[in-house]
Structure formats: C-alpha cells, structure tokens
TrEMBL record:
Protein name: DUF3392 domain-containing protein
The entry's keywords: Membrane, Transmembrane, Transmembrane helix
Organism per entry: Idiomarina tyrosinivorans
Record Pfam families: DUF3392
Transmembrane portions of the chain: 15-32, 53-78, 84-101
Highest taxon, organism lineage: Bacteria
C-alpha cells in the first residue's frame, strides 16, 4: 500500500499546479451563483450599463484574478503534504468537491 501511495504521489506531482487550478475552478463553479446573487442584490437599482459592467468585472476579472492569484497558494500547500499522503489528500479533496456540488444541486 505504501508503494502504491508513493507511486501515485510521484505521478501527481508534475500536475500539482493543474490540480490546484481545477480545485479552485470547481469551487468557483459551485459557489459562483451565490457570489453573482450577492452582487446582483448590491447593484439591483443601478442602471443597465452599470450592472453589465460590474457583472463583466466580477465574472471575467474577479473570478480570473482569484483563480490566477490563488492557484500558486493551493499548489504550494499541496506540495507541503508528505508524498505518502498526497494521493489520499487529492482524492479526498475531489470527493469533498463532489459532495459540495451535490449539496448545492450542481450535479
């Protein structure tokens, strides 16, 4: 079992950055509607053009900036996990994301 865990971690390590981005992108998909609803409430009384500009800024730049800025942070945290546990942690995170998506009726 230990050899499998180490082999799986060795296979995952080159993809840590991609895995981190996938985790964050999934969280943005799961919770994006909540963020959009909050922003929509805040700008409900604004003119159409203002609402549109704010929507574009939040979705294109806000979500993009979050993804670009936080991916290295998550990747750094994942690289600090001992190799023997890395595969289990990554699979656990994916299961947690699936559970969160199911709970938010995203699946």
């Amino acid at each position: 079992m230990e050899q499998f865990a180490l082999s799986f971690a060795a296979w995952l390590k080159p993809y840590i950055h991609n895995i981190s981005m996938m985790i964050l992108a999934t969280l943005l998909v799961i919770y994006g509607n909540d963020v959009n609803a909050f922003v929509r409430k805040q700008v409900a009384n604004a003119a159409f053009i203002v609402r549109t500009i704010i929507f574009v800024l939040v979705c294109a730049f806000g979500y993009g900036l979050l993804l670009v800025a936080l991916t290295p942070v998550v990747a750094s945290a994942l690289t600090k996990i001992p190799s023997i546990y890395l595969g289990f942690v990554v699979v656990g995170i994916f299961l947690l994301l699936g559970w969160l998506a199911e709970r938010k009726k995203q699946m």
